[in-house]
Amino acid sequence: MGGGRGAPRSSFVCVLLALLASCPGCIQIELSGAGRAPLVESVVHEHGDQGRKGAKLLLLELDGVIGRGDALGLFGVGAEGTVARFREQLDRARRDESLRGVLLRVDSPGGEVTASDVVYAELSRFKRESGLPVVAHFYGTAASGGYYVAMAADEIVAEPTAVTGSIGVIFTSVNFSGLMKRYGVTDQTTKAGAFKDSGSMLRPQTDADRAILQSVIDDLHERFRTVVDRGRPKLARDQVDSLADGRIFSAPQALENGLVDRVGGIEDAVAALSARAGAGRAWVVSYHRPGEWRRNLYTRSPLEPPRAEGAASAVRPQRWLAPGFHYLWRPGSPLLPWPGPLAP
């Protein structure tokens, strides 16, 4: 009997938690108050047998979900965003007259539409202004927004086991109104404008809602296809359109369809970039925070601020995928945790 009465209550709690998890904002409390130290440079690779006598190349990492700028905590700076990190690295690269090329390593399923577009634009502008070659290497996953950013590169090398493609746009939402009705939860949304709450998880989607959202998605998809058309000049526009249906490709499939230039490891990407820089030998550097461990081409820099020893830990609940338009390959529920960058 007790278990029978407890089941509806547990289900109700689950509904409330799901609704809270689906909210666009989340609470973030930062207790350390630590700011960020300026970027420092470390050598992560030497290509050739004479070390640093060759061309100096910069490793830029696009890891994890592509998100907006820094989030502010209660007492300091919170998680570091992809856009802010990229801009700071490129600004430092502009001051480094010894650089001969940029290696973009991508391991990302994509992310927010605007963030992906801004990172792509920043890298494209840097390449145009500096005249330096850019070679992308796909490691693991380089899908959707990750592929979008790579369209700024002159050449793409994909790891043999990499997954790429997913050229499309997604707006993910679910409808909780049936569960709400069952457990007596009422939507009290107040709005001015008939379509102000289009896409809400608290009511069914109407045909008019769907048409509005689809029109925006179609515009963003058109922009994605245009970026791919510009970044892959050997592909005709009709070929790009036929490949831009959201499907993913293995590295060999991507090569066959002209989405990448070759299949190979990151050493092959370094060699390709060295050749474009007109050098037989090269050494690769990375810009990172002083507290981030960098030793080789595979080490990943976390996008979290370094903590001083003894500093209080941040109280930070899991980040969730907020409502919005995404260049993102992420099959499954919108309530899955937001995947952050992996620590080394």
How would you describe this protein?
The protein is α/β, with parallel strands linked by helices. It has a single domain (2-186, 196-328), classed as Alpha-Beta Complex (2-enoyl-CoA Hydratase, Chain A, domain 1). The protein is 33% helix and 19% strand. The chain has nine helices and twelve strands. The strands form two sheets. Strands 1, 2, 3, 5, 6, 7, 9, 10 and 11 form a nine-stranded mixed sheet that branches. Strand 5, helix 4 (145-150) and strand 6 (155-158) form a beta-alpha-beta unit. The N and C termini lie far apart (50 Å). 34% of the residues are buried.
Residue-averaged pLDDT: 79
Q: How much of the residues is beta strand, in percent?
A: 15-25%
Q: H/E element string? A: HEEHEEHEHEEEHHHEHEHEE
Number of H- or I-type helical stretches? 9
Number of domains: 1
Helix content: 25-40%
**What is the CATH homologous superfamily assignment?**
2-enoyl-CoA Hydratase, Chain A, domain 1
Look at the helices and sheets and give the structural class: alpha/beta
CATH C-level label: Alpha Beta
Low-confidence stretches: 21-34, 72-77, 303-321, 333-344
The name of the CATH topology is 2-enoyl-CoA Hydratase, Chain A, domain 1
